[in-house]
């Protein structure tokens, strides 16, 4: 894994097998798995330049054969001494002259449990027991030291170029869109709607339909266009899950939804959400529309585990039905939905059915590329507290969401303040709907340290 002890064939095998796995995972939309494998592969690739004598041999370009299994690894320093003894451990270059002249490739031997090694270079450093066995010293360039500045810098440059070379190989195989999704840059990958279709949900379904239409129509052809749409209706029973990359098909499918049945409140909300989390790709944006608590609350821990493993964001739009609700002893509450939203980095928005069209602006805000969360905090019970955060010049379209009850707040930038009573102030515009305060900062924001004092 680190190209120690002249394990060149094995190290190259890890890289090339990893590249095959990355490309296969991208084809299957397993972007999280692809990204994790990429991290491991890049670590091994970069270690080659730090742990071998590639740059000591005068090379400045990457060793292309490391990512090409069809090419041989040539001129390896097999069965020959490679280093002279360095008693101080800080010799500028302890590679033997004949190894340098013949351009033979070697790497340092590493011993965590044993100091035994052949007459070869050591990796070096306090953790390497072989570094005290003749020939002493070490050739790793992991850190910049006074005795290895030039070689360290050369290794960094070669490792950087090699990383770009590997990434370009994957990009050409995957295509630009899937490559960006794998890298976590195209965050508008998938939009998923989990919708309660029981009898009282007619208005909510209409609003969800309008939001889907608006996302499709406003983002079509832009970098924010979702790569896939997923719809999971739940009633009794729940499902099926509908997946499509065709926006017109999603419009057609959501137009078929009708509110019917139900009545044995609560509903199977978490079963529908579980189907979405297991079926949607990692890092999806999932929006749940319901006016009922969950009768399958026993699934709550399972949902939290799925949220953590998939890194998907779940936001709930909870409305209150006009019909009288019967609570069963085994049912959850809207607080459970708030817990799940916090666990995922999403929102739990509670509004009347009449207010729902104003609340769904959140969906348009978050279905965008390059979305970042600067700060998220949850407190229960509420209290008065000040939360600092830093905004830099790279951020645009900044929105603050506060959900809770009996909220007052003061937002302060490096120069001025604005309170919750100012709907349109020096810092931004405040929209209040249900339990949500949505603050859109003005475009001419100030960079630096901001803070928001909240009392709830």
Automatic annotation (TrEMBL):
Entry keyword set: Glycoprotein, Secreted, Signal
Hemicentin/VWA7 galactose-binding domain segment(s): 372-456
Any one Pfam family match given in the protein's UniProt record, by short name: GBD_Hemicentin
Stored InterPro entries: GBD_Hemicentin/VWA7, HMCN1-like_VWA, VWA7, VWA7_N, vWFA_dom_sf
Domain Hemicentin-1-like von Willebrand factor A: 191-353
Residue span, VWA7 N-terminal domain: 1-180
Species of provenance: Seriola lalandi dorsalis
Gene Ontology CC entries for this record: extracellular region
Record bears the keyword Secreted: yes
Annotated compartments: Secreted
SUPFAM superfamilies attached to this UniProt entry: vWA-like (SSF53300)
UniProt name for this protein: von Willebrand factor A domain containing 11
